[in-house]
Amino acid sequence: MTSISLAKAKEIIDNILQEGIKKNMQPLSVVVLDTGGNIKAFERSDGASPGRFKLADGKAHAAIMMGIPSSAIMQRAEQQAYFVNALSVSFNGRFTPVSGGVLVKDDNDITIGAVGVTGDTSENDTIAAVAGIKLTGFNFSA
């Protein structure tokens, strides 16, 4: 399975951070994971709290491990909290079922990675993620 390159991961992060600035969002933190859930790149904006890495990573990791955006996992958590809690335990807590974890897809709709964004509202985190992915030329599942 093809994974996102480091260069493209960095480009996505730059585009997301610029989108956050353009839309006057709170300082964002962004992580990009490859298809195995490994960290490809991470950046934390000036002014973002240090705990943001774990939140961004948990959103992206939940998305890539389940093959669906973290917003869908959040909806599932509202209906079946016990199941999502079990997932969190299974992944040693590296599982944040909150909007802001978005799958990155290539032109063939194949998942090549995931992005996790945190720092503003979950809705705005997702908006920034989608914009950054699109500006880099990839498709997405949010």
Topology:
Elements: H1 6-22, E1 29-33, E2 39-44, H2 52-66, H3 70-79, H4 81-90, E3 101-105, E4 111-118, H5 122-135, E5 139-141
Antiparallel strand pairs: 1-2, 1-4, 3-4, 3-5
Helix pairs in contact: 1-5, 3-4
Please give a quick description of this structure.
This protein is an alpha+beta fold and 142 residues long. Helix content is 46%, strand content 19%. α1 packs across α5 (122-135).
Question: How would you characterize the overall build of this protein?
Answer:
The chain is α+β, with helices and mostly antiparallel strands. It has one domain (6-141): Haem-degrading domain (Beta-Lactamase, 2-Layer Sandwich). The chain is built from five helices and five strands, in the order αββαααββαβ. It has helices at residues 6-22, 52-66, 70-79, 81-90, 122-135, and strands spanning 29-33, 39-44, 101-105, 111-118, 139-141. It has a five-stranded antiparallel sheet. A hairpin with a 5-residue loop joins β1 and β2. The longest helix is centred in the N-terminal third of the chain and has 17 residues, at 6-22.
List keywords for this structure.
142 residues, alpha+beta, Beta-Lactamase, five-stranded antiparallel β-sheet, 5 strands, globular
Q: What value does the Rg take, in angstroms? A: 14 Å
Instruction: Assign an overall shape.
Output: globular
Strand residues, percent: 15-25%
Overall pLDDT confidence: 96
* Helix residue percentage: 40-55%
Q: What's the order of the H and E elements?
A: HEEHHHEEHE
Low-confidence stretches: none
Termini gap: 21 Å
Q: Domain count, please report it.
A: 1
Number of strands: 5
Name the structural class: alpha+beta
For the largest sheet, list the strands in their spatial order.
2-1-4-3-5
Q: Briefly, what CATH class?
A: Alpha Beta
